[in-house]
Amino acid sequence: PLPVLAVVGRPNVGKSTLVNRIIGRREAVVEDRPGVTRDRVTYEAHWNGRRFKIVDTGGWEQDVLGIDASVAAQAEFAIEAADAVVFVVDATVGATDTDEAVVKLLRRAGKPVVLCANKVDGPSGEADAATLWSLGLGEPYAVSSLHGRGTGDLLDAILEAL
Ligand code: GDP
Ligand code: MG
């Protein structure tokens, strides 16, 4: 079976945009409105001749009820089923309390994590990305999922984690 990569993070940080960038197609649903990816959706991807599965998930918000809680549960299931996780943070916003809570959840799960500092569309965003060292997950990979900037280095790190 192919190794499985789960893509997790808060709503609207760019998870589905990153998934589309990695699979090279526009299949994951990108929305300005947060929380549109309700369920786990799996795609096949490859990089440097290695194939893997990539799972797009809905995001979390802390202390939410109803449908959003079930979205959070889907993301937790996705982590359980994954060999490695890409944790996507919006570098233009910085680490929020929700992001910190997700870090705790990731630590409990004990899976290898690659930290994606997304929405770094140009060199001026690199400093924003560097602040995410504070999450304690190692190097924040500065990426623009929208334009493709930095995704090669991120994918190299993903292959090492898988
Ligand atoms: P998700 O909820 O985490 O799956 O986020 P989406 O992929 O649906 O993206 C949410 C919004 O962020 C959309 O308007 C995207 O176009 C935008 N977005 C995603 N990645 C980037 C990026 O690298 N740079 C910028 N500027 N916007 C992005
Ligand atoms: Mg999405």
Automatic annotation (TrEMBL):
Secretion signal span: none
Q: Which residues form the EngA-type G domain?
A: 3-162
The highest taxon in the source lineage is Bacteria
Per UniProt, where does GTP 1 bind? 9-16, 56-60, 118-121
Question: Which residues are in coiled coils?
Answer: none
The subunit field of the Swiss-Prot or TrEMBL record says:
Associates with the 50S ribosomal subunit.
Q: What does this protein do?
A: GTPase that plays an essential role in the late steps of ribosome biogenesis.
Belongs to which family? Answer: Belongs to the TRAFAC class TrmE-Era-EngA-EngB-Septin-like GTPase superfamily. EngA (Der) GTPase family.
- Recorded protein name is GTPase Der
- What is the originating organism of this protein? Streptantibioticus parmotrematis
Gene responsible for this protein:
der
- Whole sequence portion shown: 46 to 207 of 485
